[in-house]
Amino acid sequence: MPKPLPVNEPQPEAAPSRRVGRPRAEGTKVRILAAANAILEEEGIAGFTVEAVAARAGAGRATIYRWWPTRGALAMAGFLAETAPKITYPAAGTARATITKQLKRVAEVYSGKAGRVLAALIAEGQRDPGTITAFVDGYARPRRDEGRAILQAGIDRGELCADLDLEVALDALYGPIYYRLLVPLNPLDAAAAERIADQVFEGMLAPR
């Protein structure tokens, strides 16, 4: 009588390997940026150190320097992680309404502690180019690209003059905000931002 063939019992499937490197790294970054912003708000840039951020975030200095090469770059990154999401462009219909609403958000945020921190960081950037580079690359350039696209859409829809110089228009809209932030001769608030937007847009509207 032939011997029965052996029956292979089904083996449990191997659990898929979990790649924890990236989520863990992202979690560390979030903690570092939150710690950086908290120390900035509490101590200002004068009391801001990489060692203090590392201690609060539970991270090593080598880890921090791998992502942010200078103290100023770390400080600016922490500030932007907290502040940039608060001053995004809303979906408000026309180019004028969208930019006016965002300008008012910027003025409201910069009129408080965030504005004082940013003014100090801009001053720090005069001696540490990495601080300004972090601001330009992490916020100013991408946000300006968004603003340019919003104005261009307004031109395409016939809201704004066809020959509008987009770069000059953006300077005219946002320059006064930063001037009032750094040279506090006049208040920086939502009402001022709305007046600035009204004045500038009156010169940009397409003829009717």
TrEMBL record:
It comes from the Bacteria. This is TetR family transcriptional regulator. It comes from Acuticoccus sediminis. One of its GO terms (molecular function) is transcription cis-regulatory region binding. Residues 26-86 form the HTH tetR-type domain. Residues 49-68 bind DNA. Keywords: DNA-binding, Transcription, Transcription regulation. Residues 1-23 are annotated as: Disordered. InterPro entries: Homeodomain-like_sf (IPR009057), HTH-type_TetR-like_transc_reg (IPR050109), HTH_TetR (IPR001647), Tet_transcr_reg_TetR-rel_C_sf (IPR036271), TetR_C (IPR011075).
